[in-house]
Write a structure and sequence with these properties.
single chain, Ubiquitin-like (UB roll), 383 residues, 3 domains, Alpha-Beta Plaits, alpha/beta
Length: 383
């Protein structure tokens, strides 16, 4: 399992996080290509090395020209739905936007109006860029240090270093109240941490990459540097406690199941599948089965009750035992592909090229999907 540890003791903003992830090896050109799939904005990304106190870091700037207006979260959600972003990136972005929408509703009582703390479409571009970089690096879990925040306005005209929206999103996180000069935590970063990061003891890891991201804040000289460690957790087959949600349905339009599954994955489901069943009075039906973490159970129940015709859902705890997993990037004649590695108890390694990467390259290069898949498998075996 590949994880990343973020040292946010001096604060954290979108530019620093994006730069640190790119410094770990995510491709600037590939990110530019991915962001071009957003229909709402045209982005120009520039990355430049920056030396801070003898430390080699990366600084990123993003110029955005809006193609059409994105004024609120609902418009951002539509822009993502209308895009050609990869499915895994869409799912991660959808989770972040859902958390943001809930926080905006609680703080401001609206979701369909602009709020000053979320500059659209820039906020959407930053959320997509960070979600893509995490996916590109194969990072499955983020760990973050105690967060540094500051309260109040630095001076008239400056943004609040801990805004009401960021404060709502940081509920449950350990924070340290620092000086006014701290970078602070923005609402966009707070929402990303809420959906993808945890605090606490970082498991022992075999470090593979270290990245340093520099922010663009003019208030800091020298600039604040954000370090990130990326590596694989050294562990045997592990057991985790999960929950199963399941229900029998015999009166839902079959066309709706695709949308229902999208909603479930966006709400945090670890797995979803459908099984044909024979119900009472010999009616054909469908068993809808969902696997999830306890923290996501209530939200997934809400999706099932709102999007299907079910009148009741069975829930019960299960234990899942999973092999240690990691990702590696391999080169093929058609482009770069991520490959999942699963380590068996006898030392055997199971390889599985990432389907979304293979599908994208097959379309771009106009070659059969199996050709790209087999090329990735061959490269992984030789790596």
């Amino acid at each position: 399992m590949k994880i990343a540890y973020i040292d946010a003791s001096a604060g954290l903003d979108e530019g620093m996080l994006m730069a640190a992830l790119l410094h770990c090896g995510a491709s600037v050109d590939a990110l530019q290509t991915e962001l071009a799939k957003l229909p709402c904005a045209k982005c120009d990304i520039r990355a430049a090395p920056s030396r801070v106190g003898g430390l080699e870091a990366l600084q990123v700037s993003v110029d955005i020209a809006a193609r059409h207006e994105v004024l609120d979260i609902q418009a951002a959600v539509r822009a993502v739905q209308d895009s050609h972003l990869s499915l895994s990136v869409k799912e991660a972005v959808a989770r972040t936007l859902t958390i943001l929408a809930e926080a905006v509703r609680e703080v401001y009582g609206v979701t369909s109006e602009a709020v000053p703390e979320l500059p659209w479409p820039r906020a959407l571009v930053e959320i997509v860029a960070i979600a893509w970089a995490l996916h590109e690096l194969g990072i499955e879990q983020l760990y973050v240090s105690t967060l540094s925040v500051a309260l109040g306005w630095r001076r008239p005209g400056r943004r609040n270093l801990l805004s009401p929206l960021a404060g709502r999103l940081l509920q449950g996180f350990l924070v340290r109240v620092g000086a006014e000069e701290t970078i602070g935590i923005t609402p966009v970063v707070a929402a990303i941490l809420k959906t993808q990061a945890r605090q606490g003891q970082v498991p022992p890891l075999r470090v593979s990459r270290v990245g340093y991201g520099v922010g663009e804040s003019p208030l800091h000289d020298p600039p604040v540097v954000l370090p990130i460690l990326v590596g694989d957790v050294a562990e045997e087959a592990r057991a985790e406690e999960l929950y199963v949600l399941e229900t029998n349905i015999d009166d839902l339009n079959p066309e709706f199941y695709d949308y229902v599954m999208e909603r479930l994955f966006a709400a945090g489901a670890r797995d979803v599948f459908l099984l044909p069943i024979q119900m009472k009075k010999n009616r054909p039906g469908v068993l809808l089965w969902v696997l999830c973490h306890m923290a996501d159970r209530d939200q997934l129940l809400t999706v099932l009750f709102s999007e299907t015709t079910t009148l009741g859902i069975r829930t019960y705890p299960v234990t899942r035992v999973a092999l240690q997993r990691a990702y590696q990037q391999v080169s093929t004649p058609y482009g770069s592909v991520r490959v999942k590695l699963a380590y068996g108890p006898a030392g055997q390694v199971h390889l599985a090229p990432e389907y979304e990467d293979c599908k994208r390259l097959a379309r771009e290069k106009q070659v059969p999907l199996k050709v790209v898949y087999n090329a990735a498998l061959c490269s992984a075996r030789l790596a």
